[in-house]
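Annex B. Sample input.
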Amino acid sequence: MRRGNTVVELLLVLPLLISLGIGVGEYSYYIYAKGVMLDAARTAARVAVESTATNTAVTSAVDTTMATAGFQTVGYTVTTNPPSVVNTATGTDTTVTVSCPWGNFGAHVLPTCLGGIDPAKQINVSITMIRE
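Annex B, continued. Sample output.
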């Protein structure tokens, strides 16, 4: 009789434990993806504040960092403020923003109704540096 109780308890708890494990994995991947995007924005901002900077060089810096992490095809966008980094005055704040919908970052096993991250969630990271 007691051995049957153990099986029933396992069947009741196992789906919760599996969902919890998948959720931890999904949130960990989200933090990793956001960290990669932050590194890409930081690298691009360093390029953007140089006196010889171009918008193409800024975008290329993001492309290189994202490709190194395996995210070259996730459909991210790169924006700068000011919109053109060419001939920007020394001392000007220059911001690089990298954005991408979370749904572009691969498989999402845990549905949002069970605590998963909504695929429509927009990940935005920005880095501001002062032009040299």
